[in-house]
Design a protein that fits this description.
The chain is of the alpha/beta class and 258 residues long. It folds into two domains: 193 residues, 2-enoyl-CoA Hydratase, Chain A, domain 1; 49 residues, Lyase 2-enoyl-coa Hydratase, Chain  A, domain 2. Helix content is 45%, strand content 16%. It contains twelve helices and ten strands. The strands form two sheets. A six-stranded mixed beta sheet has the order 1-2-3-5-7-10, sandwiched between helices. A four-stranded mixed beta sheet has the order 4-6-8-9. The two termini are 30 Å apart. It binds acetoacetyl-coenzyme A. Belongs to the enoyl-CoA hydratase/isomerase family. Pfam families: ECH_1. One of its GO terms (biological process) is fatty acid beta-oxidation. GO terms for molecular function: 3-hydroxyacyl-CoA dehydratase activity.
């Protein structure tokens, strides 16, 4: 499919989606969000793909929702179109793991899209922020919720109330990103990590992702119960038999996604 606001490629068993509106620092206009959803649909449907990497440019992962597109919206426009929810949450419904590889600015909706991914690898030049308050609005794609869960109330509240950006080191210290890597190595490292995930048992990877995500939606005892059921379910897979046999026989497992 021909896209105008993103590029899409396959590297080994990884689907790589690159946000590509350089003149607008990858501002997330509605056409881009639509294309992102289409690309995710295509990679989800592709059996050869086991994980997805979402990235931007070296200067910007994404500088937020497109301010020029939304500046004149009325309440009724936003409400009737369910602005932001509509289309954006597609990332969160992706069953295959999605790794955000963030270089440069991840601001507003850009930070929110990165947080919708399963984890964030940051380049050493990454900057995260929720600057919506400085343009007269508030985060509208989950920022007030996911940022609090990721880094806690004190830092999230300061960022949301002041618009202060944090750099990659502070983001890692706060737990927003899993790791910081040199800018030049970001994409290769993200693809390497995603390909490692893709090499594992797909059903078991999906169960692991589902179970971690349950931690955000349930009480501890319900979450543990959910985990236990999925843990038990792994014993119904051929890949669990293969994985454990391979360990005992001191060889590499050959998972068949069964
Ligand atoms: N929407 C639309 N266009 C944007 C944009 C955005 N979010 N961010 C940057 N651009 C455009 C600029 O307008 C500029 O275009 P022109 O050359 O046509 O003027 C181009 O990208 C380059 O930007 P700058 O000249 O500003 O680049 P800079 O290096 O001086 O500054 C920046 C970079 C600090 C990221 C700055 O662009 C900036 O502050 N951007 C806006 C950040 C922001 O407020 N994001 C939140 C948006 S609201 C939101 O996301 C709501 C939500 O929760 C979903």
């Amino acid at each position: 499919m021909a896209y105008e606001n993103i590029t899409v490629e396959t590297r080994r068993h990884v689907g790589l989606i690159t946000l590509n509106r350089p003149k607008a620092l990858n501002a997330l206009c509605s056409a881009l969000i639509r294309e992102l959803g289409q690309a995710l649909d295509a990679f989800e449907a592709d059996d050869e793909i086991g994980a997805i990497v979402l990235t931007g440019s070296e200067k910007a992962f994404a500088a937020g929702a497109d301010i020029k597109e939304m500046a004149s919206k009325t309440f009724i426009d936003a409400y009737l179109a369910d602005f932001i929810t509509n289309g954006w949450e597609r990332i969160t419904t992706c069953r295959k793991p999605v790794v955000a590889a963030v270089a440069g600015f991840a601001l507003g909706g850009g930070c929110e899209v990165a947080m919708m991914c399963d984890f964030i690898l940051a380049a050493d030049n990454a900057k995260f922020g929720q600057p919506e308050i400085t343009i007269g609005t508030i985060p509208g794609a989950g920022g007030t919720q996911r940022l609090v869960r990721a880094i806690g109330k004190a830092k999230a509240m300061e960022m949301v109330l002041t618009g202060r950006m944090i750099d990659a080191v502070e983001a890692e210290r706060a737990g927003l990103v899993s790791r910081v890597v040199p800018l030049a190595e970001l994409i290769d490292e993200a693809v390497r990590v995603a390909d490692k995930i893709a090499s594992l048992s797909r059903p078991v990877v999906l169960m692991a992702k589902e179970s971690v995500n349950a931690a955000f939606e349930t009480s501890l005892s319900q979450g543990i119960q959910f985990e236990r059921r999925l843990f038990h379910a792994t014993f119904a897979t051929e890949d669990q038999k293969e994985g454990m046999a391979a360990f005992i026989e001191k060889r590499s497992p050959a998972f068949r996604n069964r």
